[in-house]
Amino acid sequence: MMNAKQSDRLATVVIYTLVGVVIATLVFLLGYILFQGVPHISWRFLTTASSNMTAGGGIRDQLFNSLYLLVLTTIISVPIALGAGIYLSEYAPHNAVTSFVRSAIEVLSSLPSIVVGLFGYLVFALKFNLGFSVLTGAIALTVFNLPILTRNIEESLEDVPNLQREAGLSLGLSRWRTTTKIVLPTAIPGILTGIILSAGRVFGEAAALIYTAGQSNINVSYTDWNPFNASSFLNPMRPAETLAVHIWQLNTEGVTPDAKAISAGASAVLIIVILLVNLGARGLGGLVYRRLTGKQAKGAA
Predict the structure, then answer these.
(1) CA 215 – CA 221 distance, rounded (Å)
(2) Residue 19, in any domain of the structure
(3) Distance, CA of 107 to CA of 88 (rounded, Å)
(4) Average pLDDT of 49-55?
(5) Count of H-run helices and E-run strands, the chain
(6) Of 236, 229, 232, 195, which Cα lies nearest the Cα of 214?
(7) What is the CATH number of the domain that holds 178?
(8) 147-190 pLDDT, tens per residue?
(9) Total structural domains within the chain
(10) Domain with 67 in it
(11) pLDDT, position 300
């Protein structure tokens, strides 16, 4: 029989071993993708339109479409999730109705992305006659990310100590001002984490976008950014093949001679952009947190 110190030492070794396995797996995957793809990345690769038949194509349009969908989905989903999270955390009574709503959110968060894509295709693309478009893809991704984002915001608000709410109410503040001036700024780091995770899912999602945003793409020049032009990059009603969908298409039905090289380079760009978005969002969140609360956020740069 082991004594308490031996058991603690063994448990510590096991925990560190498992953590090391996870970190090593992550480093291996990221290193392999970057090692295979970075040599194919160049300015021409990033600024050249893709080619379906000839070699030498780039990922300009797909990269822009991914960023465009990320921004549009965030604009749609964050206010809705923020309002729902505030209501569930600060205003909703504890009864059967709110329990059912939370259960429904848990069920929706576990839906496969392909199911959300088919739902978006049947409802938004066909029923509402939006067709394959950026807007259809953004709405489908909103349905895909909204449950997780709402749950994350609710938990971030609930993690704020009740003493801060009581202090605000004792000073004569209304519940709304207490929530917006005290509780919400304190919960910004957790809320930002949820937004970052949802942004990563949006940028790397492929299955849901195949049936909503489409697999075709309209190649236009950077000078043709008139939002009223049917072929403009800024037109939300045009079809848009994203970077993740482009990678999937290259590996399944790509006929270009350098399909593997383009796929490897696009995968590396996808990883790099997600890392940059995460770091940038954390830095921005830390700045906003310091401005609102006057102190350093935990884990902020």
Answers:
(1) 19
(2) no
(3) 16
(4) 78
(5) 13, 0
(6) 236
(7) 1.10.3720.10
(8) 889 988 988 898 888 888 888 888 888 888 888 888 888 888 88
(9) 1
(10) 41-293
(11) 45
